[in-house]
Design a protein that fits this description.
The chain is mostly helical. The chain has 15 helices and no strands. Helix 3 packs antiparallel against helix 10. The chain starts with 9 loop residues before the first helix and ends in a 10-residue tail after the last helix.
Length: 364
């Protein structure tokens, strides 16, 4: 039976999925998507949400066959001890490198918008100290924090409604589909990268308490929320700025909020970013948790592993990086993520049927 302090409810799973997906990527997504899909970027995010939903179905089919095992245990169950551990090394590297990339982007945004003089290594220490402290806590504590942090996402939604009073031009997205199917698919690729984090289900499923029935509905609702949330903000920025303007903006969402000014409140973008630090941190916490869990350590050694992984991410952030290096780093991490998140689970499901590998499971 799952221990109480490392178990979560389906309600908490919903918010864990949301918080692990929403973070740094949202702020720059409209800029990245419009480079290929132009005014059809909002269609790309909808297609990306559909692709995620398909993968969630594949995940659940795999997890139904191994309801008591996490991702890195399933690999060994199907492929054997040697090949399974070799594959687990790539899974671990993916989570630790994605965590490092997210932290680097986090530091870059803070340096650019809030603390331009503060050295990046100091910001890195402050961020990772808080993230390590929470990740060392039990899973239920992390899930509760994610539930509370989701209220800050509602703040962004509320703030975004204020931007509707600024000039909008629907012509920026017309005619719909003019970018072509190929470019829309390229935009979908960029949207998928911003939505990564849903693979956490492969590690959380065994820790869901009570009956597993209803999990599909829970994760589907979380995915619909994420896809709608991303589409809304991409659409909002696309009708607020021209393609030329978006190309000049690193974080269009913040530029959108920057245009909101009131008599007693100014620089809404900086106020928002100061608060958005928490949701951005949850992505780091999620990947730090997944990296540590992928090492298959016992409860006693788990805190030491989290601390070790925290130091590894910190050292990754110390590597000298400019835009060119970050772009190259992001490119190779993307290839690894696609393998770990999309290809490997699909192959494992196919092999589990071919080799007739499974455990008894509950209905999902």
């Amino acid at each position: 039976m799952t221990e109480k302090n490392i178990s979560i409810t389906k309600f908490q799973l919903f918010f864990f999925m949301i918080q692990s997906q929403i973070g740094v990527g949202l702020l720059s997504l409209p800029n990245v998507v419009q480079k290929t899909a132009n005014g059809d970027g909002w269609i790309s995010t909808l297609i990306a949400g559909t692709a995620v939903q398909i993968m969630l179905v594949i995940y659940l089919q795999l997890l139904k066959r191994f309801p008591n095992l996490i991702y890195t245990e399933i690999t060994q169950k199907i492929l054997g001890r040697f090949l399974g551990k070799l594959l687990n090394l790539f899974i671990y590297l993916n989570f630790i490198l994605v965590g490092g990339l997210v932290t680097i982007l986090f530091i870059k945004i803070i340096n650019l918008w809030l603390l331009p003089i503060t050295p990046g290594w100091i910001i890195s220490i402050l961020i990772l100290t808080a993230c390590i402290y929470l990740t060392i806590s039990d899973l239920r504590m992390i899930a509760r924090f994610f539930v509370l942090a989701t209220s800050l996402i509602l703040l962004l939604l509320f703030t975004s409604f204020l931007s509707w009073f600024t000039p909008k031009e629907i012509q920026y997205i017309l005619p719909i589909g003019s970018s072509g199917f190929k470019n829309i698919l390229f935009g979908t690729n960029n949207s998928l990268l911003a939505m990564l984090g849903f693979e956490g289900l492969l590690f959380l499923f065994p820790f869901i308490i009570d009956n597993k029935k209803g999990v599909f509905k829970t994760i589907s609702m979380a995915n619909i929320f994420i896809a709608t949330f991303y589409t809304f903000f991409v659409f909002l920025t696309l009708i607020s700025f021209s393609s030329h303007q978006l190309a000049q903006m690193r974080e269009p969402i913040l530029n959108l909020l920057r245009g909101i000014t009131y008599i007693m409140v100014d620089r809404v973008d900086l106020i928002f970013l100061s608060i958005w630090i928490v949701p951005m941190s949850t992505s780091i916490i999620a990947y730090l948790f997944l990296a540590s869990k992928s090492m298959n350590v016992d409860k006693k050694n788990y805190p030491k592993v989290v601390l070790l992984n925290g130091f590894i991410i910190f050292f990754i952030t110390l590597i000298p990086h400019n835009d060119a290096i970050i772009t190259l780093f992001n490119k190779y991490v993307t290839y690894l993520s696609y393998a770990v998140v999309f290809i490997i689970p699909t192959l494992l499901l196919i092999l589990s049927f071919l080799f007739k590998k499974h455990e008894s499971s509950e209905s999902v």
